[in-house]
Amino acid sequence: MAVEVYAAAENDDKIHSDVLTKARESCYKARDAFYSCIEKQCDKKPTEIASVGLLYPKECKKSRDQFVNQCRSSWVKHFDRQYCQNKRAQQRLLDDKGSRRGPLSLPHAFKSTP
Amino acid sequence: MVSGPIIGGPFTLISKEKQTVTERNFLGNWVLLYFGYTSSPDIGPEQVQLMARAIDILESKQNLKVLPVFVTIDPQRDTPSQLRAYLEGLTGPVAAIRQMAQEYRVYFKKVEEDGGDYLVDSSHNMYLLNPNMEDVRCFGVEYNAEQLSEAIWKELNKKPS
C-alpha cells in the first residue's frame, strides 16, 4: 500500500521549505515581534482583527503583516490561539491571587515530628 | 507509562532513501520511534536533532546502539524528499506511514483544514522499543538530550521480567 502511494505522488520532489529551520526561525522571529508589540501597546485600544477572536491595536499592523507573511496561515491561527489561551491562564492566576487572603495554614497533623 | 507489546504486526514503510523498510530491519535493535510531521508549528527539526544527540551520547558514553526512526503522521505532505530535507544530518531509517501510527495506537487527526493547509493533532511522540519490538517506555518532548539518554540507559539496564 505504502509503495503505491509513493509511486503515484506526482510532486514527490517538491519540498515545502517553509517548515525547514531557516524559514522557521524567520517565522518565529516575526511572531515574537508581533506579540511583543501587543504587550508594549497594551494601553491602546485593540481594533484590528487577527484570527480566532484575537484583536490587536493598529500600532501593531506592520508587525502583524510581517508575521502573516513569514508564517503559514495554519501556524498563525495556532499561535494566535496559544497566545489567547496563555493570556486567559495568566488572567486566571492574577484573579486567584487577588482572592487569597494570606498564607495557607495547615492543621497540626501535618507538622512533621522526628 | 506504557508496558507490554503494543505493536500490531508486520509493517512495510518507505525510507527517506526511497528503500523499503520492514520490522525485520529493526528486530534485534533498540529503537527510538518518533511520531511527528514536518509541518508542525511547535516542533521542528531541532527536536528531532535532540533525539539524535541523545543517541550519540549513548553511543559514545555507553557504547550502546539505538536506532532513531522518525515516522510521519502526515504521509500526504511528508514525501521522502521532504523528510530528507527536514532530517538533514540525522542518520537512520525514516518512514512515512499512517498504518504504523495506528498499530502503535498513536492518536492523530487532521485539524484546522484551510484549503490544502492543515495541522495534525497527535498524542505522545516518542516510544522506546526493545530488540523484540516491544515498547517499553514513551517520552514527551520536555526531555533534553542528556535526560533522554539517561532515561533510555535506565531502560536498557533493567533486568528482564
TrEMBL record, chain A:
Localization terms from the record: Mitochondrion
Transmembrane segments: none
Region (Disordered): 92-114
Matches recorded under Pfam families: COX6B
Cellular component GO terms held in the UniProt record: mitochondrion
Principal subcellular localisation of the protein: mitochondrion
Disulfide bond as UniProt keyword: yes
Protein name per Swiss-Prot or TrEMBL: Cytochrome c oxidase assembly factor 6
TrEMBL record, chain B:
Example of a GO cellular component annotation carried by this entry: mitochondrion
Entry superkingdom: Eukaryota
UniProt record, GO biological process: mitochondrial respiratory chain complex IV assembly
Pfam families: SCO1-SenC
Stored CDD domains: SCO (cd02968)
Similarity comment: Belongs to the SCO1/2 family.
Protein name per UniProt: Thioredoxin-like fold domain-containing protein
Species of origin: Trifolium subterraneum
Taxonomic path: Eukaryota, Viridiplantae, Streptophyta, Embryophyta, Tracheophyta
